Each structure stands twice: as structure tokens, then as C-alpha cells.
Amino acid sequence: MASVPLDSDRPNAGFAVLELGMGWFPEQAGGLNRVYHELVRSLPAVGVGCVGVITGTGRSSRDTGGAVQAVVRSDASLRRRWSAIRRAVSDTLASRKIDVVAAHFAIYAWPALGVINRPFVFHFHGPWAAEGAREGAGRLATAFKTWIEKRVYRRADRLIVLSEAFKTILCDSYGVDPARVDIVPGGVNCDHYNVPMSRQQAREKLGWPTDRPAVLAVRRLVQRMGLEDLIAATARLVKAHPDLMVYIAGKGPLAEKLQRTIDGHGLQDHVKLLGYVSDADLPLAYRAADMSIVPTVALEGFGLIAIESLAAGTPVIVTPVGGLPEVVRGLSQNLICDAAGPEALEKALGAAIATPGSLPTSDECQAYARANFDSSVMATRTRAVYEKALRI
Q: DSSP state, 62?
């Protein structure tokens, strides 16, 4: 991404925003960082000049011509990160023409609240405290995170959520007035996922079998992602579909446990843990699969990976959890499982394997993703929310 102009008096420059993020994708993986990366890349094209403040190394500055600065390493102590972020936000607001401040991560927005003297928009990417608790965080840590979240959300002039499901959580769990909340689905660069090769060619390049049905799951290997359910469903599916292959891409603390589960079911020839798949190779993996699966059991507010799969021309089956159905409902109801859990996954995947014509075609998937979730669509809708904040 090229350096971003900040002078709002220039033709078509519109206005300028300071985007306070978490980390830089692909240096740091994760849905929040992916959305942030696409947003700062896309906003200039819709007349929003932007600079960014994040944690990490110097890669963001190199990638953006200096527009997004990592002001402290992400592995620094929390006190050092807070101090550096507060100072960077204060200095930027004092030295640059910034019209709106937008933040994406509550723990990094909190130390800057005292120096933000512009309209403030918060992008709610999920219930941070609740997600941590689901993945094993202690009661004290959860209470601390919730305390920070409530103060940040209360201070925001407008809040952006990725789905109706997240709006419900934000309003019900944190007491936010629904009138202050706007829904802007996440977006991806659809061109990046449009791999110019056939499914068979993609498999040959990856070394996958070309004569077996293949299902791909791209997930962090943590508790709430439903990967144990997917393995259990596969153990049942291989009885009717003995050539089935399931690939799980991602890393996380459950890796060893998942491998033991695979071994315990005798699925070594049917389920493969791929580990981390780089952003450069991910479109190829999506393209190689007959379908992808998002088997989440809790707290999935949106599901950016579902859009990535569709943008690659691969239909994606999702559980009816959080905002996942909102992503695919407009394309095909056949993409939504009846429930979460092994039985529902077995039923949905089994039907899709037996009758592939029931799923949207590759062209239909890509057209739907581009029309509804391309990063340019996200940027346009985000600009509209920033303009609301300016009018307050």
C-alpha cells in the first residue's frame, strides 16, 4: 500500500482518520488484524486519508509508505505498550490534520481515551473478555478486560459491528444504545483470492490427492472453533465416504490434542493438520478444496474465513452460530448447518459430498463475495459511519 495523503484540502482527499489497531497482518494473524489491514488499504480509494498506530515491527511502515506505524513491539510489557500508544496518539493528533479517531482493540484504545479530542469510532470485533474466558482465561483477567471494554464502548460516539449477532452482544452485554451502532460486514481483497487455476491444478501444486473429496477448515486451534466436532463427524463420514480428506489449517494450543484425537479415531489417512498456512498460500488451499467448513460452537461474530473461501470460488458450510449465517444466507440456505456439533456437521457435509450440485457454483460464490464483501464495499460503508461521527 502506498503512502496515504492526509491533507483533506486536496481534491478528493475527503477527510482524515487515525486508525488505532492491534497488529499488522500478515505479521500477526487473526481476523481483527485482517480486517484492519484491508480497511487501511482500501479507505484512501474512497476519499479517506488515514494513518495508523499499532504494535509490532517496522513491516507495517514499509508496507504502507510510513502511513501505519508500529510504535512498540507487541511482546513488550503491557505498561510499555500503553505508554507508547498514548504518546503516539497524542503526538499524531497534535501534529496532523485528523478528523476522526477509530480504534479496533479495546485494551489499546483505553490508554488513549484521555487524549482523544476528536469524534471517536470504535470497531467492535468481538467480546474480548468473553472470548478469553471461553478459551481458559481466569476470573480476574476476564473482569479486568470487561471493565476496560465498558469504558471504551461508553466513550465512543459511534460503534461499528461486523454482524447483527455482534450488535446484539454489544447492546445486551455492554449496555450500548443500539442507536449508536452500525453494521459494516468485514471485507477481503477478492482479487487476492481469485486463483487463476482449476481445482485439480491447485491440488497438484499443493500435493493433495486429485481423486478424493477434500474439505478445508481454516481455524485457530482453540476450544470454541469446533474442530473436535469436525474430527468426530469425519469419523462417521468415512464409513459412507471412505476416500474423504479433511484438511485443517491453523496453529494454536490444541494442536497436540487434536492430533491425538485424529490418531485415536484412526483417521491419519483422512484428517491432516496443515499447521500455519501463509496468506500467500491460503487462496490456493481454498481453491483446491471442494468445500470449506466453519464448525464453530460459540462466539463467532462474523467469520472472515467464510468470505475468503467464497472469494476463491469454494462454497463454505457454516454452523448457525453468531454472525456466520448472515454471511452466507444470501447465497444459499444449503450452506448453513441445522446446528453445531458432530451430528449436524456429518449431515451437512454428507449431503454436500453426495450431491455437490446442491451447493453454489464457483462463479456464484465469487460473484456473491465481490458484490457484498469486497474490501471496497467495506471501505465505502465505513466512510459513511465516520461521516456520521463527524456530524455529532
A: H
Give the number of other CB atoms < 10 A from CB of residue 330.
10
What is the spatial distance between Cα 371 and Cα 366, in angstroms, rounded to a whole number? 9
Region for 188 from its dihedrals, namely left if φ exceeds 0, alpha if ψ lies in -120 to 50, beta otherwise: beta
Q: Please tell me whether residue 285 adopts helix, strand or coil conformation.
A: helix
- Can you tell me the distance from the alpha carbon of 148 to that of 162, in angstroms, rounded to the nearest whole number? 20
* CA distances, 212 to each of 260, 284, 290 (Å): 24, 17, 9
Give the predicted TM-score (pTM) of the model. 0.87
Those residues with Cβ within 8 angstroms of residue 368's Cβ, 6 or more apart along the chain or in another chain? 310, 330, 331, 360
DSSP per residue over 159-196, as a string? EEESSHHHHHHHHHHH---GGGEEE----B-HHHH--S
Confidence of residue 126 (pLDDT cuts 50, 70, 90): confident
CA distances from 45 to 2, 175, 330, 379 (A): 11, 35, 27, 8
CA–CA separation, 31 and 314 (whole Å): 19
d(CA 37, CA 39): 5
Distance CA 80, CA 182 (A): 33
User: What tens digit of pLDDT does each residue of 300-336 get?
Assistant: 778 889 999 999 999 999 999 988 999 999 999 999 9
d(CA 196, CA 184): 29
User: In angstroms, rounded to a whole number, what is the distance separating the alpha carbons of residues 263 and 242?
Assistant: 16
Cβ atoms of 120 and 81 closer than 8 Å: no
What is the rounded distance in angstroms from the CA atom of residue 245 to the CA atom of residue 288?
12
**DSSP class per residue in 229-265:** HHHHHHHHHHHH-TT-EEEEE--STTHHHHHHHHHHT
The DSSP bridge partners found for residue 318 are: 294, 336
Q: Rounded to whole angstroms, how far apart are CA atoms 380 and 382? A: 5
- The β-bridge partners of 183 are 161
Over residues 19-55, the pLDDT tens digits come to 999 999 988 888 899 999 999 999 999 999 999 999 9
Q: Report the candidate in 94, 115, 90, 89 with the shortest Cα–Cα distance to residue 21.
A: 89
Please give the Cα distance from 44 to 50 (Å, whole number).
7
Number of CB atoms found within 10 A of residue 128's CB: 20
